[in-house]
Design a protein that fits this description.
Strand content: 15-25%
Helix content: 25-40%
Number of helices: 7
Radius of gyration: 19 Å
Largest sheet: 9 strands, mixed
Structural class: alpha+beta
Number of strands: 15
Distance between the termini: 62 Å
Number of domains: 1
Length: about 280
């Protein structure tokens, strides 16, 4: 039996979040005379703060929430991520003079995009951007290891993959066949299924996740026992909010925590070997 207290708290938090995401943004940033939004940068930052506040209650205590760029030991850098979830206890603070923040891929646990209303082409563009940033977040240092002594870090285990998610106000296109259209979009771009999004949460349309081909289990993982999962949608908004929270918490809790090898980010291997 579910906890009615926890269920009620989760639903009320979602309702407040949805109301703020919809109404406050319109009231604060919409020019009624010109019939358009002004200060788009401030509007985006406002919604990112709302999402960060919403996420706080569904992540383990060691997880920090910010925005910025993901960097790897291969000298790759992501485009700016609206939301980065990282291990705040194991991550050095790296920023430039403009206060842009950079997070080593070893420390990144999830990345997210925050959008308003998206048409189909904008949705596809956002998800492909997310998949490219996800590929960089998967580039772990060779000698980084778990924080638990004598416990091996399983790089190829699906549970250690960075979680990617999209939260938006609305998907403004026909959704009758959107699941198959998303799959076609990824395959047309030759995006490996492991780099597909984990969760799409539209506050007006519901939650997109996956169904296991083995037993029909609803999951945020794109593959299951090396078999591809199918994209599915839950249109019940309150249940979608609770399911999004549950999958985020479980996925982040299952990931192994890493003590990153910072030397691989600071030095070329030949410099370390030669002692230069």
């Amino acid at each position: 039996m579910a906890s009615e207290i926890l269920k009620s708290l989760a639903i009320n938090k979602f309702k407040r979040f949805k109301n703020s995401f919809h109404l406050e943004a319109d009231e604060l940033f919409f020019d009624e005379k010109k019939k358009r939004f002004f200060h788009n940068g401030e509007l985006g930052a406002h919604r990112e703060r709302l999402v960060s506040d919403f996420l706080v209650s569904m992540v383990p205590g060691f997880i920090g929430i910010s925005s910025g760029f993901v960097i790897s030991t291969k000298n790759d850098v992501s485009t700016q991520c609206d939301i980065i979830l990282y291990d705040k206890e194991m991550t050095p603070i790296i920023s430039d003079d403009q206060n842009n923040r950079f997070y080593p891929s070893d420390s990144v646990k999830a990345i997210g995009e925050v959008k308003s209303s998206l048409n189909k082409s904008q949705l596809f563009e956002t998800l492909l951007k997310l998949s490219k940033n996800k590929s960089i977040s998967h580039e772990k240092a060779k000698d980084s290891d778990t924080i638990i002594p004598n416990v091996e870090y399983y790089r190829d285990n699906l549970i250690n993959d960075t979680i990617s998610f999209l939260i938006c106000k609305k998907i403004s296109c026909k959704l009758d066949n959107i699941e198959s259209e998303l799959e076609e979009m990824y395959r047309a771009s030759s995006t490996p299924q492991r780099l597909w999004h984990n969760l799409i949460f539209s506050l007006d349309d519901g939650l997109f996740l996956y169904k296991s081909p083995l037993d029909g289990t609803r999951t945020c993982y794109t593959t299951f026992d090396s078999k591809n999962c199918n994209i599915i949608k839950n249109s019940d908004l309150e249940k979608s909010a609770m399911e999004f929270s549950m999958h985020m918490f479980i996925a982040l809790s299952f990931q192994q925590r890493i003590c990153l090898d910072l030397s691989e980010y600071l030095f070329d291997s030949v410099d370390v070997i030669s002692g230069k």
